[in-house]
Every structure is written in C-alpha cells, then in structure tokens.
Design goal:
There is one protein chain. The protein has one domain. Helix content is 29%, strand content 9%. It contains seven helices and seven strands. It has a five-stranded mixed beta sheet with strand order 5-3-4-6-7, with helices on both faces. It has a two-stranded antiparallel ribbon with strand order 1-2. Strand 6 and strand 7 form a beta hairpin.
C-alpha cells in the first residue's frame, strides 16, 4: 500500500498498459446461408461423381457372380456327359412342338443334372411319374436354386404358371440356331428328347453355345426351372436383348405393359441385365460375354452344333 501511495501515477500507467495487452474477445458467428448452400452443392457434386463408380463396382461384382453360376452349370453339364456319354435332353415330352402351357410331361434338362449341381436331395424328391406339373412336384418346382439366378436381375417376384416365383431360372439351354419351336429335330445341344454327345457337335465345342442368360420379365409367365419349355430353353435366331419378351421401359407413373407371346410355341432369344450383352457357356466349358451388337449370322451359327460353317473370332 505504501508503494501504491508513493507511486500512484506509475501503478495506474502499468494497469492501463496491461489492459491494452489483454486479448479482446471476438463475437462468434455461424455460417451464412450462402456459405451453407455452397457446402451442400460441393457435397452433392462429389456424391454425383462417386456414385456411378460405386454402382459400376457393384455391377462388376454381380456380373462376376453370374459368371461363376454359369460356370457351375457348365461343369455340371460336363459331369453329366462324362457319366452318361451324352448331354441331358433339353425337354422330355411325348411329342412336340413344346407349348408354353401347363400340360404334358415337360421335364427340363436342369432336373436331369440336379445331382451334378449338389442338389441330390432335391432330385430325390422329384416324382418322375407325374411330370413337371404334377401335384407332388409343387414343392420341388417352387424351390429356389441360387445357382440358377443372376444377381443383376432386380425382379425377384415373377408370376409363374403355378402362382409362385421362387422357382424361376435366369439361365436357359440353347436348342437351336434358328427362331423355331422346341421340337425333335432342332440343331442345338439341348432340345426335345435330345441326347447329344460331343461327337455330334461337329462345329467344335468352342464354337457352340450350350447355355446362356435370359431375363425374367414382370408380366410374363415363367414355368420355372423344372419345365422344359421356353422357361429353360432359348434359341440364337433372335438377337441378344431384342426378343419379343423384352418389354419396353414403362412410362413413369404408369403400370408396365404386359408382354404377349406371338404364340404358345414361341420361345424368343437370350437376354440379360448386364449392360451391352449377355454371358454364355460354350460347349467346351468356357464362359464368354457376347455383345448385343454381334452379327445375327454369327450368333445364329453359334447356336447350331453342326452347320459346318467357319465363324472365326467372335
């Protein structure tokens, strides 16, 4: 106190200089509306740039899984041929041509090779005395087999002739290189009551399509993998993704237009949800992706086992 009383002017000078050196508190403020909109716009642009890349990566993974499923089917067919020295019949029925109706025997080629697909228990439940549409086979034909489904297909609830959807297949055998009904004299590898051995594939196994993809179209009827009709058999006389069963994209806000078959014996061609084409298993076991812009003549020749024409690269 004595020092302050003695030097009052000096103390006041020191206090004032300390107040000047003390940092002043700034008033905090938030983002302005313009700044917030700019940040949102930048985030939206980044998402717009990254989302297509993510979708492409997912589609690539689904396409690889689809290829693996097709490979398993090709291996199963080869194992069947090694065991019986011939490929399974594309469809077993008393007579032809095969109609896409719920009648007849119509056991498909897929049923014959179920043991080769590690589906022995399911094969044991098939009542071969009743055929594909027998009452005792209702549970079997409604069973979903994941190997027969393409992960890229978004339709998982397809109305079937028997009222179910789980028994549908995204893969079909090739019965002909021409757009004709399924019958006894087709030139493919899997057709009505067929029993083709590899010696009969005169064009060469690497030049002959065995199995390919097909879409499941909402509004059409699918008999499922148990049925040896157009649900499991297609031809290469129709360009890829251009068959009558490929419905046009629906107009936004309106229901999809139902697809009508030209006749009950019409089969259509191969198709897929992969961009630009579809995947096929050749008779030599290789898996090939064929562009939907492939020459119709070349595609037709690939579906025939003995046209004896030179194809070259495709």
């Amino acid at each position: 106190m004595k020092i302050i009383q003695i030097f009052p002017a000096a103390v006041q000078c020191l206090l004032k200089s300390a107040e000047k050196r003390r940092p002043c508190r700034r008033r905090l403020r938030g983002f302005t509306l313009i700044e917030l909109l700019v940040v949102i716009a930048i985030i939206a642009i980044l998402i717009g740039l990254l989302l297509p890349a993510v979708q492409q990566a997912r589609e690539a993974a689904r396409r690889t899984q689809c290829k693996n499923n097709l490979m398993q089917i090709a291996i199963a067919l080869h194992n069947y041929e090694m065991a019986f020295e011939r490929l399974p019949p594309g469809s077993v029925n008393a007579s032809g041509p095969i109609r896409h109706v719920e009648e007849g025997y119509q056991i498909s080629w897929i049923v014959q090779m179920l043991p080769m697909l590690e589906q022995t228990s399911l094969f044991a439940r098939v009542n071969f005395s009743e055929g594909a549409y027998g009452i005792s086979n209702a549970m079997v034909r409604n069973t979903r087999i994941n190997t027969l489904r393409c992960p890229s297909d978004p339709t998982d609830t397809i109305p079937l002739l028997n009222g179910a959807a789980s028994g549908a297949s995204n893969f079909a055998g090739c019965f002909s290189g021409s757009d004709v009904p399924i019958d006894l004299q087709n030139d493919g590898c899997l057709f009505l009551n067929s029993g083709v051995g590899y010696r009969q594939i005169r064009d060469g196994a690497s030049n002959t399509i065995l199995v390919g993809e097909k879409r499941l179209i909402a509004g059409t009827f699918e008999s499922g993998w148990i049925s040896g009709n157009r649900s499991t058999l297609r031809n290469t006389g129709v360009p890829i993704n251009r068959g009558w069963d490929i419905a046009p994209p629906p107009v936004p806000g309106t229901p999809p237009v139902p697809v009508q078959a030209p006749s009950d014996t019409a089969t259509s061609g191969f198709s897929s949800y992969h961009s630009g084409g579809a995947q096929f298993a050749l008779a030599d076991g290789s898996i090939r992706f064929l562009s939907q812009n492939i020459s119709p003549q070349v595609l037709s020749l690939l579906g025939s086992r003995e046209d004896l024409q030179i194809i070259g690269e495709f």
